[in-house]
Task: structure prediction
Amino acid sequence: MFDKIKALSKETLIYGTNTIIGRFLNFLFVPLYTNIFAPDEFGIIANIYAYIAILNVFFTIGLESGYFRFASTLEEGNRKENFTHPFLGIFVNSLLLSGILFLFAGNLNELFLVDDSRIHLIRYTAVILFFDAVSIVPFAYLRLQHKAVHFVTLKILNIVINVTLNFILILVFKWGIESVLISNVIASVITFITVSPIIYRNFSLSLNRNLAKELLKFSLPYIPAGISSNLVQVINRPMLYAITGSANSVGIFQANYKLGIFMMLFVSMFEFAWRPFFMQNFMLPDAKKLFSKIMTIFVIAGSFIFIVLSLFIEDIVKIPLLGRGTLVGKAYWSGLAIVPIILFAYLLYGVYINLMAGIYIKKKTKFLPFITGGAALINIIVNILLIPSLDIYGAAISTLLSYFAMTAGIYVVSHKYYPIQYEYSKIITVFIIIGAIYITNFYIAGNLISVKILLLLIFIISIFAFRIMNIRAIKDFVRSKN
Result:
């Protein structure tokens, strides 16, 4: 078992190299934007990218997930057919939707919070959505083939180009928020060019009607599920603006929400490796025991990240940047209290990703729209109830409750069709420990670094003291073959 866990860990670390470097480079946008742009300007960009996240679901129509399911087993069609069908489906669909968005941009300016002089920002958005969508299946191919280094190299290239152009266009050419989308357009086009050899090698004009039918049957539920899932992540930005009428609130919320990126980084690097891993190992005799152990390890690692960031986030954001401000501009510090809420929401999302295995394995994707749809509905209702009185804190709480609902929902369905005996006592104990430490820090630690360090040490000691993890298991892990 430890050899399998170690193999997953290695791939997670490789993808993590991309994610860490990529998220770090992307995180450079936070000090850049928050020290250059006013909160209302940053709010416009945050709103546009919220819509990009939502629209991306309509562009990809769940076919990336369908590709993983059928290309991993080849139960229908050959390797090239399993690549071509989802790729071609996304290409045709994205071309149509981008064309509509491009041509009718002038009718959407109020939705995107741009005036008539900035309609071109919507057209840039259409181009970004198209090229990002048609690159998804080639990147999924690299993940399924365990070509993690190739995947990482191309992703980092995309991010380096994007970050470099952002700095040049904003600081040198002074192009303002237009710089953000122009940089993204160029990076997305270059990324598509770099994956085009993968498309060329795997593309086939043959039509497998049965594969197309099964692929759509499996993938289409991801459209409402994906829409709902993205609504959970981004709907609070446009709702903040709609309820408060303040782009300033949206900007402050977005800047502090971005600080949750450190937990999302961990969840993302795990997800890249996890999906192909469980699809290729679920037929092992001890698969369920293996998946249970992985869940425990994930919760421990995620909880450690939560504790570190919750304790030290105020110290981190105030780090000076070579005389050009701080890591996060002072105008945005008023929203720092939402960061632990967002961190824990992302930790729950990681548990959700773990639980996704059962639905994939048993082809029960038809339940996903109900799970994520219910969470999205909770998000919208809580936003309406709490934003008027709590402003950005209401938006953060709605995110946390939504992820909790998603996690609870997918657990019920997965447990029914693919029951796994997770190490419940250990997982619950970890959550109790981090809850106690967070509350202690909130009421006692204040700005005392020594107390914060002590609380971090208490967490580490507690993991071993309560036998959630033991030294012997760590030694067995290190000695395993992979």
Summary: DSSP finds 21 helices and no strands in the chain. The radius of gyration is 22 Å. The chain has two domains: 1-26+245-482, 62-219. The CA atoms of residues 374 and 405 lie 7 Å apart.
